[in-house]
Amino acid sequence: MQMRLSQMVKQNAHRLTRITEEVLDIARVRHQIDNVPAAPIELDDNVVHMVSDWQSHDPNSRRALVALNTADMQVNFDIDHLRRVLVNLMDNALRYMGPHADSMCIETGTTPEGLALMQVWSDGAPLEKSVEQHLFEPFFSSESRSSGLGLYICRELCSRHGASIRYERSTLTLARGETEGNAFIVTFRKSLQLPGTPSLFDTIMV
What we know:
Blueprint: H1 2-35, E1 40-42, H2 43-56, E2 65-67, E3 74-76, H3 79-96, E4 104-110, E5 116-122, H4 129-132, H5 150-160, E6 164-174, E7 177-187, H6 200-203
Parallel strand pairs: 2-4
Antiparallel strand pairs: 1-3, 4-5, 5-7, 6-7
Helix pairs in contact: 1-5, 2-3, 3-5
């Protein structure tokens, strides 16, 4: 019993440390956005390099299919912030995906309106409605080990760069057949549009 309580205290301490680090990180990111305006970058080139770098740290478990469909298209997004969004989404998918080589799929493409998009899909189980409704809220998590800030940071970074992020349950046609999974989709805007409403980014003081 004492060992179990000790383990719980240790896990909570780690979680609180991570929350503190990520809250401070939010403030740093907010400062960077205000002082370093986004510049047009090529989406496909950056995505493939970011995925490759992420996989290089653990090639055995970080398996993913990559499909690039926005050749020569540019988006308004800071490279470091795009990396943060993509890595957060890939790390999240890695926790819940199955054991197959195609259990995670990363894709770029365009909307019917001609806007560039980036999708991270994995074949995890459907999210409960109660979880889905609060996915992008700060400090919300279905896991005790999570800080509950990863998806919130993704949303805020996208919003600050005039992009949007959403979740949906979708089906992909893979070599093993029609497979359902969870998709997180970032849609980029043609021009940078900063939001007018304040957020946690605006209220954190360091």
